[in-house]
Design a protein that fits this description.
about 650 residues; alpha/beta; 7-stranded mixed sheet; 5-stranded mixed sheet
Length: about 650
Amino acid sequence: MRSLAYLKLMAREYPTIKAASSEIINLTAIQGLPKGTEYFFSDLHGEYEAFVHLLKSASGVIREKITETFSHIIPEKEEVALANLIYYPERIMNQLELKGLADGDWQRVTIYRLVQICKVVSSKYTRSKVRKKMPPEFAYIIDELLHVDYNDDNKRVYYNEIIRSIIDIRVGDKFIIALCELIQNLTIDSLHIIGDIFDRGPRADIIMDELLQFHDVDIQWGNHDISWMGAATGNLACICNVLRIAISYNSFDVLEDGYGINLRPLSMFAARIYREDPCDRFVPQILDENIYDAVDPGLAAKMHKAIAVIQFKVEGQIIKRHPEYEMSDRILIEAIDFDRGVVTVEGKEYPMLDKFFPTVDPKEPLKLSKEEGELLHTLQLSFMHNELLHKHIRFLYSHGSMYKCYNSNLLYHGCIPMREDGSFEEIVVDHHAYSGKALMDYVDRKAQNAYFMPEGSAESEDARDFMWYLWCGAKSPVYGKGKMTTFEHYFIEDPSAHKEPMNPYYRLSMKEETCDKILEEFGLPKKGSHIINGHVPVKIKEGESPVKARGKLFLIDGGLSKAYQTKTGIAGYTLIYNSNHLALAEHKPFDPNKESTPKVSVVENMKNRVMVADTDKGAELAERIADLKELVAAYRDGVIKEKVE
């Protein structure tokens, strides 16, 4: 039973029995509709062109709808042209107009076809919901066209007159664009991003701008997102890490053009300190050419080394401040014998591939030089007072979390840390042990504290340091490996030193019973529930499948990042969950000059069509209906008076 005070608040929105009853009828009707289509993406890694294409094309589903609607009616070439128009309406319209091909006859046929597709993708939604998504200037016209019975002779004339008028007054191009954007909007009902929006690819900032505009999106943080979130709090190690990775992948555009971070102080420092050093171990990987901020590879290598050395110093300082991290063996800059040019890692001595460290004092290896300290301070200010970056980071916080339970699916990026025996691994913090769901909840609170607690407070400083631990700590849920061997990759030739042992989770989660244990830990039923996981690329070319544990676990990081595609053989996955089935869309490497519609395969059929009433949203509606019924009863009993106008 709701309190009288709560019912009185509801009465402000529904002041009469009629208003409350009308809403009960509306919500009950919505419960009887098929659930909206959910899309799950993972590990976008700054690949904005590929991601935007997948978003606009609904990972191939729009093309499927065209084929289903017009199969055997129009040739495949016209299906492809219609699909491309829906994906990129302004670009295609401009091209057609320049060629003189977008005449009245073409517009008339195209509007008819687009209306048919729009009817198909809008059929599972209420008329009210569809109307809210329509562009205001054409909402009335689109609504009429979607609900005209074309088989009625009178209505057919009416329908044709609407289209003729649109073309006659020369707004056909704008109307076509509006229909295309509405189709895009209706095809994806909700969007789940399972971590790692940032790093490696050229423009994570453009992806974030797209997500800001999307109508229903949630994000489960990945370790690369956490690193950028930590950098935004002013954590020096995270700042260095963000810069190091961006420079190592030649991603200067995202730093300087995207976020306006001034790298000139770093470039001047690196050019002077490493003037005579070729920095061969630090030459960046060039997967994408910079459009706005081309940097000479030789200078980039010097910048890369400069920030890496600074990063090893400030990471060591964090480890010293936090013995509870149990990472003292990772302060490898202190393990270097500078006279002999060797480093000792886990008791084994290795020759160093690079022995030139002009800013490192062998007596105090973790001490920053005066110039390094000044440079870091300048860079820290760039991150902490960056308006666009903080707009994006606040969105990560407001729409993101460590995990999400939604419609019997458990979403997270990395892992639920486990021991070899299958029990949940514990982290002991402030005399409390956290594991499983409690660990994920703790990490979520800690990440919130890092950004929102008052700057300079003990809680803020501790949480900021913890953001770096989440990036690379052995028990971090978003990392999930025993150690990060960045130092070894730079300075040690022996490949055995580069290995990063995976948490037992990654082996154990292949078993159905482990997935059931995790689902139960998060309060989800074993039957009908799934874990949807990112972080680890699926190597299709080696025979791996993204579907694990007899269909309980979906690994959907298949390599959207160009850096992984030679290993995986594909370009990632979209998991699609509609009212009838779960399907995987297998992406092709993105090429704007080639047809790259993903291959969609159904991986699980629902026993019964899933209706809104069967979803988490349906449970919310049921609760709302119950409240409204109580309000109606209160009106009828005279406990609350109706508003008479």
